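ARCHIVE CARD
SHELF: 3
SLOT: left
DATA:
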Amino acid sequence: MEKKRVFKMAVMALLLFAFIGIPMVVEAGDAKKGEELVHGRPVANCVGCHHFPNIVMPSTIAPDLVDLMNNLYAEKDKEKLRQIVADANKFFPDTMMPSYGKGKLLIDKKKGEDKLSPEEQKKLIEKKIDDIVEYLYSLKKK
């Protein structure tokens, strides 16, 4: 009887440690949704200032993001780029770029997203920032 109990405890401990040792999988953003946000008005409207491919009259107000993605941001910089999209002022104090993570700039009233609870809006904003970052990484030449 004692051996069964010890065995069960050992199995439970093993499962617990195995579960704790499993790295958390972070869900990547959706590049297609990110592209819609980047090109979208009034939501992100990144194309109003940045150059992107397939834009008839690309803007030159802000840096060319295709060039930046190909020459500056490697895969290891994904979290930093995410932070820049969320709050560019933190990195570039003189920037005119809005802080998408601080306000409700990514909340689409036409889709009723302004009716969501503050917690749901925050999660949605985080997801949209992930989508934008994923789209920006899709611009990199393979």
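SLOT: right
DATA:
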Amino acid sequence: MLTYTLRRLLTAVPTLIFISFVIFLLLELAPGDPLADQPLTIPAEVRERMRTAMGLDAPAHVRYWKWLVQFVWIEPQVILDGWLGTGLAAGEERILSWQFRAPVFDIIWQRIPQTLNVVGIAYLVGVGIALPIGIVSAYRQYSWFDQIGTFVSMVGFSVPTFFTGVLFIVIFSVKLGWFPSIYDTTLRVTDWSSFLRQVSQMIMPVAVLALYNAAQISRFMRSSMLDNLNQDYVRTARAKGMAEGTVVLVHVLRNSLIPVVTVIALGVPTIFAGAIITEQVFKVNGLGQLLITAIQANDLPMVQTLAFVFAGLIITFNLVADVIYGILDPRIRYD
């Protein structure tokens, strides 16, 4: 397993480099000018100096290589400087956001807590709800519980999150006045009252995302459980007098989790992507909303860095899913 993991990590390096080049090429070919939102009264020579200050006067391959060096060499040194108090990156030029005129990674670190608070908790809640629903629905197939679970899952997966979010706002915020419709990112939890306000503003976005995630994962869990419940090893275990709870919750569940692990693991990067639509609906100032504003402002360094981070997370958690396979099923070995 260790050899396989190291081999996959080595393979990931050229893969990530190729992905970064493709992202840069797509952004380079995309229409739009980072200075398009500037007043037309700016003189041509001033506009040209602005382009030089942003590095737009350099050839494309030079700008790509500069960004790559900053991402893989300078920014890690900045992180080490923050942790260890060293000066490894002192005086080095970092990746700067054209929109915010600040280092890209500083802005990303500021937005991550908002994303994790809402989208991360929603994902954990969705997984925690989906697994029991899928297990019970499969074990009691065609029962009233299975029928209700199937209906709710189909609705949750079919209805887009922007519609569900707006519907929740209309019902629970406008009509009933239970929860705030806009997420207050400036709120700081310092006492019990502020904690209750934080929970109140998180309920609707968490519920919307948890419903969507639970709908998808519960269907996979149910289907996988049904496949294993009819296997010969289950009938053999029951014939030997093994307790029904042990058969279902130990043997069947462990084998059923193997394909579901892929869905759960590959869904983790969506936490950091920030459920872009939901963050826009509830005005959550997270990574998803940051990506939208960066695209609208033609902030190419921010868009390129975020897209590359998301791609890296997908590759990383794909590897995590493969490793978990070997833990759940000893028959799986990577030679």
